[in-house]
Amino acid sequence: MMQAPLTRRDFLRRSLVVGGAVIFAPGLLTACGGGGGGGSGSRGLRHSNWPTYIDEETVELFREETGIDLEYIEDINDNGELFAKIQPDLSAGRNPGADIITPTYWMAGRLIGLGFVEELPLDQIPNSKNLVADLVNPSWDPEGRYSLPWQSGMTGVAYNISATGKELRSTNDLFDPAYKGKVGMLTEMRDTLGLVLLGLGKDPATITFDGAAEAFDKIEKAKVDGQIRQFTGNDYMDDLAAGNFVAAVGWSGDISQLALDNPDLRFVIP
User: Fold this and answer.
1) At CB < 8 A and 24+ separation, what contacts does 6-12 make?
2) What pLDDT, in 10s, does the model give residues 4-40?
3) What is the structure's pLDDT at 75?
4) Least trusted range by pLDDT, from 14-28, 61-75, 160-174, 200-214
5) Which residues of 85-124 are buried (b: 16+ CB within 10 A; e: fewer)?
6) How far apart are CA 159 and CA 83, in angstroms?
7) Residue 160 has what DSSP assignment?
8) How many angstroms separate the Cα of 240 from the Cα of each of 110, 160, 232, 256?
9) Which residues sit opposite 73 in a β-bridge?
């Protein structure tokens, strides 16, 4: 990651943090214990996560070490899509097709607030005591009863330097006419709008809806003018890897994985 020097205080104040929070859906404990109350049945344990969030060895190692038949699926593309998919089952008290899900922190907070998830069996998770202080009892789960972090990272600008011809430093670089039709932005409003607000010199933490109008207008104009090729979920990685996007709003964890295969891909905290 390349960035201008930031103090820790600046980092925490200005950053848009993407924290994957692991939470338990209804039916997990009864399903794992062999009871019939959960939607898992006899298929074992199912964990729903985002793409590129795990290596190629861990799932099988987990199966061997625990004897649990883990089905690990990479089917989360966008928090809104996830909620729309699982909400009907959760509202009815049914397992939504996964026992453990890993949404972004704010969606974890929504699911916890709606009473859709079970408490974590923390007495069976001894390494939960190893969390750094910043990740203990987070604002979306103040008592730390329902979630644990999967990973944390940053929203920023991802780009292919062989296509841009230069290093990108600012969110405003996404609006450079040289990249018209080759820019991607996330459907996640907190990420896309937050970065554009920062590019306009506005603080997303204190903004009002009316105060955000300039950023909304800038994004809308860029879409109408053809500057923005597409709004996507996590599948922006495919367009970036294929060259459809020269630059995009992206997540640090994704780009660190993609860059292993394509060193021209870069990520910057703008």
Assistant:
1) 6/269, 12/134
2) 443 433 333 333 344 456 666 554 333 333 333 344 4
3) 92
4) 14-28
5) ebeebbeeeebbbbbbbbbbbbbbbebbeeebbbebeeee
6) 29
7) E
8) 30, 8, 11, 13
9) 48
Tens of pLDDT, residue by residue over 230-269, are 999 888 888 888 889 999 999 888 888 888 888 999 999 9
Which of 212, 178, 200, 191 minimizes the C-alpha distance to 106? 191
Measure the CA–CA gap between 59 and 45, rounded to whole angstroms.
Answer: 11
Beta bridge mates, 183? 228, 247
Amino acid identity of 155? T
Half-sphere exposure of 170 (CA within 13 A, CB side): 9
- What is the CB-side half-sphere exposure of residue 258 using CA atoms within 13 A? 24
Q: Is 154 exposed, middle or buried (0-12, 13-18, 19+ CB in 10 A)?
A: buried
Between 8-12, 52-56, 222-226, the lowest mean confidence (pLDDT) is in 8-12
pLDDT digits (tens, 9 = 90+) for 245-255: 999 999 888 88
| Cα 133 to Cα 60: distance, rounded to the nearest angstrom | 31
Question: Phi and psi dihedrals of 19, rounded to 5?
Answer: -115, 115
Report which of 169, 221, 171 is spatially closest to residue 201, judged by C-alpha positions. 171
Distance CA 122, CA 81 (A): 29
In sequence order, the β-bridge partners of residue 200 are: none
The alpha carbon torsion through 49, 55, 60, 61 (nearest 10 deg) reads -120
Cβ–Cβ under 8 Å, residues 49 and 99:
no
CA–CA gap between residue 260 and residue 6 (Å, rounded)? 26
Nearest CA to 75 out of 244, 246, 235 is that of 235
